[in-house]
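not sure who needs this but someone in the group chat was asking about 2-dehydropantoate 2-reductase from Vreelandella sulfidaeris so here u go. i didnt clean anything up, its just raw.
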Amino acid sequence: MSSHWILGPGAIGRLLAHSLSPFTAIALISRRALPEQQIFTSPEGEQQTRLLHVLTVDQLVSETHGQPGFVHITTKAMSAEAALASIAEVIPPTTPLVLWQNGFLAQPRITQAWPGPVLCATTTEGAYLTGDDGVVNAGRGHTYVGDLHNQHAKLAEQLAQTLTQAGLTAMAVDDIRQRLWQKLAVNAAINPLVALNGIRNGELRDEAYARRVESVVKEVAAIMRAEAIAPPEGEQGEKAWLALVWKVVENTANNKASMLQDIEAKRPTERGAILGPLVESAQRHGLTSEVLQALDAEIAELEAAYGR
């Protein structure tokens, strides 16, 4: 079975590493050294300690390694291209990449630039880190895999089967662009509000936050209609998007969203990859995006305050 390199030891990267390691060779690649002994906590609260093959980028570049079957890029969207560039000299240009970024920023850029196959993955698995040696799978979900031009169906199916075997329910699809936009819509309604208020996903149902969720979804639904993106359940319109958001909130109620994790760690957030494409689309289609722009400005203000 193909080996898997995982570039980026964030929550999804470590979840992948723990899931895949019992079934295939993996390498978890980081900019800085991390403990090889890593702790995984399941949604049921069960803990497992595993020895993972952890490498720094410098080690990878300076040492000789076998070629990977897949390279998963699990960094934040704004770091994906630089992360790929940091290891590009040690992998053949035909190596399949798998992009796990939120939003719709890195995927089209890397698909256009990389000569080999580029798969995109979107997942509703909930995960968050507990320090340098731990990750919590806070909620089980579904993962979809495909490529933007629907040219690598067999490769997507191979990867989906491997992920499913590893316990991450996955499916190869021929409409990954639609699904990336669908997740973008959900992320825009959840991540910024969770980050701004310092709460878990499930708390968005509280009266203090629910109305603002609805106001975000109202703008997002209009943008999705203009982009010809339908909700995944087959229903149409604003009510269907709101139902989808509340379903994800329910399924990931205990999850600490990635944007909140970034704010707490005083890291740059993915606001540009999540809110940026929506605001840009709204402007292109002559739609209002006041709520989305306000969220973006509030997150930007939080980021600007890190150094104060």
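also The radius of gyration is 19 Å. if thats useful
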